[in-house]
Specification:
Strand content: 15-25%
Order of helices and strands: HHEEEEHHEEEEEEEEEEH
Number of helices: 5
Radius of gyration: 17 Å
Number of domains: 1
CATH architecture: Alpha-Beta Complex
Bound molecules: magnesium ion
Shape: globular
Mean pLDDT: 96
Strand order of the largest sheet: 7-6-8-13-14
Largest sheet: 5 strands, antiparallel
CATH superfamily: Creatinase/methionine aminopeptidase superfamily
Length: about 270
């Protein structure tokens, strides 16, 4: 995929501060949902936990009703990569599930996903999730240290390629995105290295960075429900995502309680709240 010409929404500091509030709500909602993800719990029950926190916090869902999506989170289990629909399926010991949710506060959006290995997971699945999360943080750090959007994908790709052990695949069918007054905006944020630098990273930009890694091939297909994306070879997948904002003073991860400090400081980036 090549970069398209883009119209990127540049936010004021005041607008970025509302995005920080939306991100904090989303972080709390995902905390509760991840805590509830245990053997025997249905994905519909996880959706209810998430929806209740949004309601308590006075936020609304950007997932519910999006192209008629029927829930507030996507729950993607094992070979499901993204866009799984919550329902009666109950989590089993050793499942790997990605929980992707969003929140809107005063018209401004947040988008974030975490992977959970349920019960006694395999070492391979734990590694898959850990590498995906670490790759995401490399991509986020590049928003501070890089000059162009393409630097994010380069950082993710370089990290994943250098990880010792069995190689993991980076999905190319689905990518990160700009975010602000809508959930999905320009620019595309690719998770892999290309020959294109992409648009310049500028203060006022907000990006959702969301690498999706697989233990097998990167080919995917969409199931008959028109939503659930699975790996064609049935191998397991992981997704991690945060919303990050860039401003004149630095970057801040809106969907992390500490702006991302715990993971970014060791990478040489100290987040600064706008
Ligand atoms: Mg998401
Ligand atoms: Mg997203």
């Amino acid at each position: 995929m090549a970069f398209r010409p883009t119209r990127i929404e540049i936010k004021t500091v005041e607008q970025l501060r509302i995005m920080v509030r939306a991100g904090k709500v989303l972080a709390r909602a995902l905390d509760s949902t991840v805590a509830a993800a245990a053997v025997g719990v249905s994905t519909a029950e996880l959706d209810a936990v998430f929806a209740r926190v949004l309601q308590e916090e006075g936020a609304t869902s950007n997932f519910l009703g999006y192209f008629d999506f029927p829930a507030t989170i996507c729950t993607s289990i094992n070979e499901e990569v993204v866009h799984g629909i919550p329902g009666p399926r109950r989590l089993a010991d050793g499942d790997i599930i990605s929980i992707d949710g969003g929140a809107v506060v005063d018209g401004w959006h947040a988008d974030s996903a975490r992977t959970v290995v349920v019960g006694q997971g395999s070492a391979e699945d734990l590694r898959l999730s850990q590498v995906t999360e670490a790759a995401m943080w490399r991509g986020i750090a590049a928003v501070a240290t890089g000059t162009h959007v393409g630097d994010i994908g380069n950082a993710i790709d370089d990290y994943v390629s250098a990880v010792p052990g069995k190689p993991l695949g980076i999905l190319e069918d689905y990518v990160g995105h700009g975010i602000g007054t809508a959930m999905h905006m320009d620019p595309d944020v690719l998770n892999y290295r290309t020959g294109h630098r992409g648009p310049k990273l500028r203060p006022g930009m907000a990006l959702a960075i969301e690498p999706m890694l697989v233990r097998g091939g990167i080919d995917t297909k969409t199931l008959a429900d028109d939503w659930t994306v699975v790996t064609t070879d049935g191998k397991r997948a992981s997704q991690w995502e945060h919303t990050v904002i860039k401003h004149a003073g630095g970057i801040w991860v809106t969907t992390a309680h500490d702006g991302g400090a715990q993971q970014l400081v060791p990478l040489g980036v100290t987040p600064v709240e706008p």
